[in-house]
Please model this.
Amino acid sequence: MAHQKEATNRVEWKIRVADGSSKDLVPESGPAGRAWLGIQGLIAGLVLKVGRCFKKAWDLAVDDPRKVIHCLKVGTALTVVSLFYYTRPLYEGLGRNAMWGVMTAVVVFENTVGATLSKSLNRACGTLLAGSLAVGVHWIASQSGEKLEPFVNGASVFLLASAATFSRFIPTVRTRFDYGALVFILTFSLISISGYRVEKLLKMAHQRLSTIAIGGFMCILISILVCPIWAGKELHLLITRNMDKLAYSLDEYFNNSGIPVEKSQGYKCVLNSKAAEETMANFARWEPAHGHFKFKHPWRQYLKVGASMRRCAYCIEALNGCINSENQVPESIKQHLSGNCLRLGSVSSSVIRELAITMRTMKKSPRTQNLLKEMKNSVQELHNELGSLPNLLLPPPSIEATLPLEEVIPIATVASLLIEVAARIEGIVSATEELASLAKFKPAVERIAPH
Model:
């Protein structure tokens, strides 16, 4: 009976397949089964996401192994500095302030040597200056009596914190010493409201400054000695790459007929590199002499070169806008101007490419001035062709129709923009030659073109 009851409570379904046999269909699982399937799907999705994250991390490490090296350098610095906290003799000498060395290593260790030096020195100077002033103000407040002491401390915090905050709006301070001003405000405020006696305050300030100096020094040492990444060298390479991209954009801008075609977008990298250039130039000024870059290398001149390249890139962007013009240029006008446009575009890109070689080798190229003269001659020829353009608009005596002006405007705009590009390339040449003179680039041996 029990077997029959169980059989009646279960519903079995059969289907017949193509070969004549039948198969049982398993009924749907209950809530527990569906929950288990959901958990399995969740785990599988999580595994896939973790796998994709590892894949991206691997690609990033392969693309730039220096990022992996930097991570190892940070780990090494933290391990060494943490020994001051875990080693009893060192801990007894520095006390609980040994932890400030670890915090300093975390905060100041940056990817480049210049950035690490900048933050380390800013932190040390800000802490030293704030600590000295705080001890002095605390002594004056303690001599003023119990009633006046809170007012003296409060007034000092208000005045010095306000003045330091205002200094962060000054361009020079904001560029080079902003982090130091922030550390000064934080340190002075913490010491002023700590309420320690002067004796304990001096000991605490000494221990904290010592640990900060140890942490910063360790970061600087590892950053310089272990696979250093110099901000100055990175800035030099960035300017050189941008020159190559600018030349490539201009070189690829014209096909064999001299009409602009939308190919390269490398000029956009030039337009978007201002912030990176300013940051690298600021950090490069903190770095010692290294490689080909001597003491007091003219890093600010790189900003002038970058600015002149951006002015040229804006004209190339305007050329890009002319591509989408819906007006069709007459074939006669194309033939009249395309040759000179193509010649001017080619020699202009050659000038920029020669400047990139000068930057890459840090040697003055003797071919730059010759190419510059050739570019000026091409500009004059294009000026002459534009001057004769109105004659092409007049119809022959046997034809009464006049060529519409809107059909001529696109190609005339392209020619005018090319002339403006050539003028702005002269600005790049001037800024680069000034950099070569300030940095004392050596003359290069003239290259002989292959036959």
Remarks:
- The first strand starts at residue 13 and ends at 16.
- DSSP finds 18 helices and four strands in the chain.
